[in-house]
Write a structure and sequence with these properties.
The protein is an alpha+beta fold and 626 residues long. The protein has helices at residues 2-48, 69-73, 78-81, 86-90, 92-106, 147-169, 203-207, 210-226, 271-291, 312-318, 322-325, 336-352, 397-452, 459-490, 500-511, 534-549, 590-601, and strands spanning 52-58, 63-67, 111-117, 120-130, 136-145, 173-177, 184-188, 230-237, 243-254, 260-269, 297-301, 307-310, 356-363, 369-380, 386-395, 495-499, 520-524, 529-533, 558-566, 571-578, 605-611, 614-621. The strands form five sheets. A five-stranded antiparallel sheet has the order 2-1-5-4-3. The chain has a five-stranded antiparallel sheet with strand order 7-6-10-9-8, with helices on both faces. A five-stranded antiparallel sheet has the order 12-11-15-14-13, sandwiched between helices.
Length: 626
């Protein structure tokens, strides 16, 4: 019993396995049958596609299907391609490019490309072929022969390019209208009007203001009725929202039976012209108003000086009527002393075409003469010939009177300042002379007193005597410098060509006694010759060197550098001294101030700059002669 059950189980399993295999075979047979039917339908469809070709490429880039009318047009037979790689079948040049696109499709990305084969143009689109598992087994590509379409497109593009060149070359706005003007096909606004790129039936509302609608529609109806040219000057809505002016013209394009196919038109923007006309009219009104409001006397004359127009202000000021002032009658109002020279210069300005500016007197209606500033400007034509002269006269009588009074005051104060300077120079000379003698006597008395009581002096007292002697000697030297400076201030400048190098070397030698006990290293470069007063220049360098070297610590070695900083105008000589005690520098002290004043007398300039432990002096000359 148990053995029979086991045999039954084995038989049931065998029966189930046989059934599953039979069912799988039936399904496979059905699938193969369906596939054969599908391939047959595909081949039938391919054969029925005019001028096209279908290709299937497997994962190895080999043609599996190649069929269709387009295949022969491209110069191939199916047997030339089937079973072969793409590059092998159609050649390496095009094959390499095609294989790259097929690989892209095998990666899941379709492609579309235009290419030429045997003088024909094809458009090929490729898509990946997916299997039941979602994988990609190959690529399906469909090629269309688009040669005729390309020829048509190229001819149309050439025609459109010619039209576009015409439109671009023209400054006019170009538009196209339907036969009855119900629709505007297109309009190239060129930034002036809004573009219309698609047919529009609201062109009237878009471009034409309400105030112009009736006139435009009436002109359109007449043009449509007669099939003759449309012409109209009208207002128009511009692209920026403003309303401008346009001149429109359109002609009908007729077919062989004389019917209107469409209207071709152009529009010229005449907003500028209209505005210019309006502006000119307004300008003339403003001109007439302004020229009669300004306080100046205005006129217009012919090149020979003949007056053709005066403003109302001239007539009110002079009391002349327009008739009396026209021609050369205006000269009757000019002061007799100014009249002849004015007429001569007026004619000369007209001949040369140069502006004229001068001052002369004009008689007022009550007989009083007043000073005026005169401006006259010639107007020239394109050839440079004077065609008109415009003039204006401004009353400067009060200003001229005030200037005369001011000049008198300045002259008086200048004279008083000159006298004061002379007195100061004289006082300086006398004071220096009066100081020098007492100071010399004081030094002598100190020396005599020191000798008489020398045996009774201790070191501290003797030190006090030395200090007094030094102070007296310094005071005497200052008095002599004061006297010399007063002399330099009074003497007349003697400008010559002064070589600076030997002058600086001499100043260095002159300063040696004053610098006893101080170590100075001089570095003097090649210096030019300049125009100036040799004595004053010598004093300038003396004051600068002495004043600055006094600020160098006695225990340190002074560095003095003198060199040419700039050889072009203005010529600059630089003096650098270090190390100095900057805290002790007084840039307004007697030495620097004296040197600066002496340079100014010669038309030069002296500047001082202190940085850290160095003093930098710059001496400027306006002109170098050698």
């Amino acid at each position: 019993m148990i053995g029979g059950v086991r045999r039954w189980k084995r038989f049931r399993r065998l029966l189930r396995d046989v059934g599953e295999r039979l069912w799988y075979a039936i399904l496979q047979a059905r699938a193969e049958h369906t596939l054969r039917e599908s391939e047959q339908r595909l081949r039938t469809l391919i054969r029925s596609l005019p001028g096209s070709a279908v290709f299937v490429v497997d994962q190895h880039l080999k043609y599996v299907i190649a069929q269709g009318e387009g295949l022969a047009a491209a110069g191939y037979r199916p047997e030339d391609l089937l079973g072969r790689r793409v590059a092998e079948a159609i050649g390496p040049v095009q094959g390499t490019s095609h294989e790259a696109k097929y690989r892209r499709a095998l990666d899941g990305e379709g492609f579309e490309v235009e290419h030429a084969e045997h003088g024909r143009t094809f458009l090929t689109r490729g898509v990946p072929l997916s299997n039941a598992a979602g994988g990609i087994d190959g690529v399906l590509a469909l090629s269309y022969d688009i040669t005729e379409r390309k020829h048509t497109e190229e001819a149309l593009q050439a025609s459109e390019r010619r039209l576009q060149l015409f439109v671009s070359a023209s400054s006019d706005i170009v538009y196209r209208m339907s036969p009855d003007w119900h629709e505007m096909y297109s309009l190239e606004g060129k930034g002036i009007l809004a573009d219309t790129r698609h047919p529009s039936s609201i062109w009237l509302e878009t471009y034409i203001p309400d105030s112009e609608t009736d006139a435009v529609q009436a002109t359109v109806r007449e043009a449509v009725r007669t099939r003759r040219m449309f012409e109209l000057e009208h207002r128009i809505r511009r692209a920026d929202g403003t309303v401008g002016w346009a001149f429109s013209r359109a002609v009908p394009l007729l077919d062989e039976r004389g019917g209107v196919v469409e209207w071709f038109g152009t529009t010229s923007d005449i907003t500028g012209r209209k505005r210019a006309e309006a502006a000119l009219q307004a300008s003339e009104e403003r001109f007439r108003t302004v020229v009669n409001l300004v306080p100046d006397l205005l006129w217009q004359s012919e090149p020979d000086g003949t007056i053709v127009w005066y403003n109302q202000r001239w007539q009110e000021f002079t009391g002349q009527t327009l008739e009396q002032a026209l021609g050369w009658g205006w000269t009757d109002a000019i002061h007799l002393e100014d009249r002849e020279g004015l007429v001569q210069r007026y004619r000369q300005a007209a001949e040369t075409g140069e502006p004229l500016q001068q001052e002369h007197r004009i008689r007022r209606h009550d007989g009083e003469y007043r000073w005026f500033q005169i401006y006259m400007v010639p107007l020239k034509d394109a050839l440079g010939q004077v065609i008109q002269i415009y003039g204006a006269a401004s009353d400067i009588h009060a200003l001229r009177t005030a200037n005369a009074l001011l000049e008198a005051r300045v002259e008086d104060r200048t004279q008083r300042l000159t006298d004061l300077n002379s007195e100061l120079r004289a006082l300086a000379t006398v004071s220096s002379q009066q100081l020098s003698e007492p100071l010399r006597r004081l030094r002598g008395f100190l020396q005599l007193l020191e000798r008489r009581i020398a045996s009774h002096l201790d070191d501290k007292t003797r030190h006090y005597f030395d200090l007094m002697q030094a102070d007296a000697q310094q005071a005497e030297r200052l008095a002599e410098d004061f006297k010399g400076l007063a002399y330099l201030e009074q003497r007349e400048l003697k400008s010559t060509l002064v070589p600076l190098l030997p002058l600086v070397m001499q100043v260095r030698s002159d300063l040696a006694p004053r610098l006893s006990g101080q170590t100075v290293q001089w570095n003097i470069g090649d210096l030019p010759a300049v125009r100036g007063d040799a004595m004053l220049l010598r004093q300038v360098f003396t004051e600068v060197f002495h004043h600055i070297l006094k600020r160098v610590p006695a225990y340190q070695k002074a560095q003095v550098e003198v060199k040419l900083r700039s050889a072009v105008e203005p010529v600059v000589i630089g003096i650098a001294v270090s190390p100095v005690r900057a805290v002790l520098m007084d840039l307004s002290g007697d030495g620097v101030a004296t040197a600066r004043r002496l340079m100014q007398r010669q038309g030069g300039q002296l500047t001082v700059d202190v940085q850290d432990d160095q003093v930098d002096v710059r001496i400027h000359w306006a002109v170098q002669l050698d």
